[in-house]
Amino acid sequence: MPPGFDPTLNPAGLSPDFSLLELGLYAGMGLFVVLLLLTLLALATLPIFFLALFILDFVLRGFQVSPDPVGKYAKLAGLVFRSLRRNLLRTALTYVALFVLTGMLTLIYSVVSFLGKLTSEKQAQQMVIVTEKFAIPSMMPPGYASQVKAVIRDKLPKEYQPADIDKNFMTWSFVGGSLSLEKRTQENSLFLFALDPDAVLNGMMSEQGLSPDDLGEADWNELVRVINIVKEDKRNIIVGEDRLQIMGKRVGDEMTLYGLNYPDITFECKIVGAFPAGSRLGTGAAMRYDYLQAKLDEYRALKGKEHPTTTRCLNLIWVRLPDKESYERLAAIINDPATFSSPAVKMETFSAAIGSFLEAYKDIFWGMKYIIMPAIMVIMCLVIGITITIGVRERWTEMAVMKVLGFQPWQVMGMIVSEAVLIGVFGGMLSTWSVYFLPMAINSALKAAKVKFSFFDSFACPPEIIIYGPALGILVGLVGAALPSWNARKVKVSDVFSQVA
Amino acid sequence: MAIVEVRNLYKSFTRGTESIDVLMDLSLDVEQGEFVALMGPSGSGKTTLLNLIAGLDNPTRGTIMVGDMEISSLSESELAHWRTRNVGFVFQFYNLLPVLTAYENVELPLLLLPLTREQRRHQVENALGLVGLTERMGHRPGQLSGGQCQRVGIARAIVTDPTIIVADEPTGALDAKSADDALNLLELLRSELKKTIIMVTHDPHAAGRAQRIVHLEKGRLVGADALTTAY
């Protein structure tokens, strides 16, 4: 969410007195749903896991008839697969546990990685944000938009200016409205971004998923069509599909919105289009900035005085600059109190702005990265360690027999480690691959069926997890099997048989 | 000529703070091709002696020569390597790997030796043929009777053509008929293949099939030179 956003006008549709208890409840429900989904996914992929084991075993059997030493080692490796098949239920449960835990780890890693990318600086094109320096939410005079443009044109050397300032510039104003003056509920409230519609067509919101690449040609053309309708009449607005559903409205409906942060101002709106459900704007809405300005002018004409927000109705300014150096030069000018003093403003990159916003949650992210992720890894090691330990205990005599037959301690140890690594690598691989590819596959299928459900588009795991998953499985297998395999290595044959006798 | 020479052997175990002497100053010779039965009451140290001769444990003091190898000072890894070639072990409870077929169980020790696949197959088929289980080589232990499992165990013990065969109560878990079959096999191994066999048993009937019975009591030999009348 951009800095300067008014927390009392929550686009997610939550009530303004949204408490920590509610947050905890939602987080708990979210965690439960994720765990449930991962467990279902694990059960669904269980046949693939066993099929993979079967295929590997089958391939090994093929190698077993090869000339030595390949044939001999293939036979020894075959013992590992047979041990895993010995107790199918235990092997399956271990796989499911590892799958779920790896999935959780993958999701946490994806979130942390996604935020890291958002807050990392880009050398190329810089989207920069101008906000009020000392106040949250940022509320600047509308005249600041033209002043920033003038600074860019007049004070920034030509080579650092965007090719066309008007096409690389946009302003944001946040408008909260309610269908009823008397009773305000989640169902009758609407949060709108007051924008210049051309800014979307100029690609200023491509980072928000409003681009031909993200939407696809058909959806982009539909958005362009709707924006052109918005341009025909100031009152036309676009509302997210999710929000329409909550409010019980449809495209084509007209409504009167009573301003919440613009008291005594009433907006007559007509819904002419919808943002896709599940997209970042799925619960929000957009209106024309000049309609807000017109309403403020109308207020002055009627009341004979300025509306209290007239000089504070500009929340954000976005500028797209050619590169980092352009940003640094412009920031030096804009951030100078001599340029903007009442109120003073600050210019920062998009990533820095998000970083500032996320600063409040840094403890949560730190906890996710350095407490929850390691804790999950420890649990994974324990799960596999306990399973392998039980398996080793059950086969204590067999281990001793193998040593009697002449197997070296390291060979016995290697067999145990291999069992753990096999479960680990398949659990890790299928889990991360499912989490990575499944949303893409579902989205492709939905697109093919012309069904819109773009949640899966908005969630994407970093591609490196395709490698990290199996690698994590190997690591967990090695660590988890360390103790039981060491015990198997150290099994004292004479002790085992004296106990048996 | 003695194939096994045990000299002044001591073996103690520590339980908590207490040291228990299981074998005390024990000396024993076993000749090449001899079938020796170790008898004695529980706790007399016969299984401990068998384990030491088989290289499954190290003595506290004393020496054990098997063939021309002094095994009492070998490391665990060296002992494992030595056992592969020189010791065949027959267990009371067969101890076959349940996930492997009879053929695979017998082949298992051969996988540790530098043999070709053909050589392995030849040796496994010979060993299973000797114990009369050629027809059952594809069966898992769960599909075989106790007597058949023990015969597979014997085949596994002889498949590497070891210097000595050690058997710990080989008839202890078998019915009379199967026990007799197992003992006949051991006798056959001694008479036809000139194998040296050392067997621990509580059963006087089984011990009576050996050439020599060695009695142990409280870690010492008693009447060690007694020979059975059968041979």
Would you kindly provide a written description of the structure presented here, covering whatever features stand out?
The complex is a heterodimer of chains A (501) and B (231). Chain A is of the alpha+beta class and 501 residues long. Chain A has two domains: 42-119 and 362-500, no CATH class; 134-343, no CATH class. Chain A has 16 helices and nine strands. A six-stranded mixed beta barrel of chain A has the order 2-3-7-4-6-5. In chain A, helix 1 packs across helix 2. The longest helix of chain A is centred in the first third of the chain and has 45 residues, at 20-64. The N and C termini of chain A lie far apart (71 Å). With 231 residues, chain B is of the alpha/beta class. Chain B has one domain (2-222): P-loop containing nucleotide triphosphate hydrolases (Rossmann fold, 3-Layer(aba) Sandwich). Helices cover 32% and strands 28% of the residues of chain B. Chain B is built from seven helices and ten strands. Chain B has helices at residues 46-53, 76-86, 102-107, 117-130, 146-158, 176-193, 204-207; strands spanning 2-15, 18-31, 35-39, 61-66, 69-70, 87-90, 164-168, 196-200, 212-217, 220-222. In chain B, the strands form two sheets. A six-stranded mixed β-sheet of chain B has the order 6-7-8-3-9-10, sandwiched between helices. Chain B starts with a strand and ends in a 9-residue tail after the last strand. Residues 224-231 of chain B have low confidence and may be disordered. The chains are: A alpha+beta (501), B alpha/beta (231).
Pair with the biggest interface: A-B, 30 and 35 residues
Give the total of domains of chain B: 1
- Report the top-level CATH class of chain B: Alpha Beta
**Strand neighbour order, sheet with most strands of chain B:** 6-7-8-3-9-10
Average pLDDT rating of chain A: 83
In percent terms, what proportion of residues of chain B is strand? Answer: 25-35%
Radius of gyration of chain A equals 30 Å
- The 3D shape of chain B can be described as globular
Q: Give the strand order of the largest sheet of chain A, numbering strands 1, 2, ... along the chain.
A: 2-3-7-4-6-5
Largest sheet of chain A, if any? 6 strands, mixed, barrel
- Roughly how much helix do the residues of chain B carry, as a percent range? 25-40%
Number of beta-strand segments of chain B: 10
Q: What is the residue-mean pLDDT of chain B, rounded to a whole number?
A: 87
Summarize the helix and strand pattern of chain B as letters: EEEHEEHEHHHEHEHEE
Could you state the oligomeric state of the chains shown?
Answer: heterodimer
| Tally of helical runs of chain A | 16
Q: What would CATH call the architecture of chain B?
A: 3-Layer(aba) Sandwich
Write down the domain tally of chain A.
Answer: 2
